[in-house]
Amino acid sequence: ILAGDYLIILKDYIGQLIPGCPYNFPVYNPNGTHIEPFNRLQSINDCHFICNIDNVGQGKFFVMIYDPLKPIRIPCQIQNLSKNRIRISFLPSKIGTYKIYIAYRNIPINGKCIYLLCK
Q1: I want to staple 81 with a disulfide (CB 3.0 to 4.6 A). Which of 49, 71, 85, 101 is the partner?
Q2: How far is CA 75 from CA 20, 66, 100, 108, 109, in A?
Q3: What is the pTM of this model?
């Protein structure tokens, strides 16, 4: 099944629609998110990476970036490059390796914790 919005129509035994039909069911696949190849060593003035969210379905994309030394979230900017590509950028306050978590529809994406060294 491909991600997207699906309508389900239910009928009774004589072919009449069940009350409330049609039912709308969003189908999504958060693990369809792909991080495009990038340089893991980046300038502190331009730390960014690009995610491809093609075929994941409708939903909100979340990014959490953490300080290298303290459990503090770093603000980031999410910019739509096209319908299915998103650029995530942030301005680190210091040189270090930042831990980045990605989630789609509040579901953590398996294997999508990445490390980015900014210097």
Answers
A1: 85
A2: 43, 9, 11, 18, 20
A3: 0.68
